[in-house]
Specification:
alpha+beta; Aminopeptidase; seven-stranded mixed sheet; 5 helices; 7 strands; about 30% helix; about 30% strand; globular; binds coenzyme A; L-2,4-diaminobutyric acid acetyltransferase; transferase; acyltransferase; EC 2.3.1.178
């Protein structure tokens, strides 16, 4: 488990062979690898992903092709607003991007949890993530509101981070229209 998954599968085979499921405890290591290889996400410890797979499996989705995890969405129900699922991280291996895998993981999350509201935070420069959540919102006929959430004052001065905008997608219909 050291390098990004390669594939020679044609698009149609990826679409038909992919499966979506909650993570098992043993998937934490693969989720960590996908996050690391994304070269984009804040990388947490392998322990954190394994703990997540144990305690937040109901609101987490892994995408699997040919027995290998190639993407994941981590989420949790907000303690003060449990009907809302907060998406913490989403990533798909580089070689599997552009096949609708991230969007289908979000579809699976909604179908499984029955939530009608999803939140996430995105930095202003992450166009792929913005496009993903805009597409997801559009296909579910939802409202999509963007407001500031975390700014430089919320992060340590000696470990600064980009401001994070809150994307709140509400009124999500269970069945997406494509
Ligand atoms: C963001 C990411 C998860 C998207 O995964 P993906 O499986 O390629 O996305 P999908 O194929 O499901 O695309 C969903 C929509 O987003 C659009 N999109 C995806 N990547 C895009 C890009 N780089 N530029 C513009 N639009 C993009 C797609 O065109 C699609 O829109 P459509 O339904 O209107 O056609 C992937 O690029 C990734 O892992 N990035 C690194 C990690 C990251 O930045 N995560 C988000 C922050 S937590």
């Amino acid at each position: 488990m050291t390098s990004t998954r390669q594939t020679t599968l044609p698009t149609e085979d990826i679409r038909t062979q992919i499966t979506f499921r909650p993570p098992a405890l043993t998937d934490g290591a693969a989720m960590w690898r996908v996050a690391r290889d994304s070269a984009r996400l804040d990388l947490n410890s392998p322990y954190a992903y394994t703990l997540w797979a144990r305690d937040f499996a109901d609101t987490t989705v892994v995408a699997e092709v040919d027995g290998e995890v190639v993407g994941f969405v981590t989420g949790y129900r907000r303690p003060t607003e449990p009907e809302t699922v907060m998406v913490w991280q989403v990533a798909v291996d580089d070689n599997f991007r552009g096949h609708g895998i991230a969007r289908r993981m979000l579809d699976e999350l909604v179908a499984r949890t029955g939530t009608t509201t999803v939140e996430t935070t995105i930095t202003d420069d992450n166009q792929a993530s913005q496009a993903l959540f805009t597409s997801f919102s559009d296909h579910h006929g939802a409202d999509h509101e963007v407001t500031p959430l975390f700014t430089s004052v919320h992060f340590p001065a000696d470990a600064p981070a980009e401001p994070e905008l809150l994307h709140r997608i509400s009124g999500i219909s269970a069945q997406p229209v494509y």
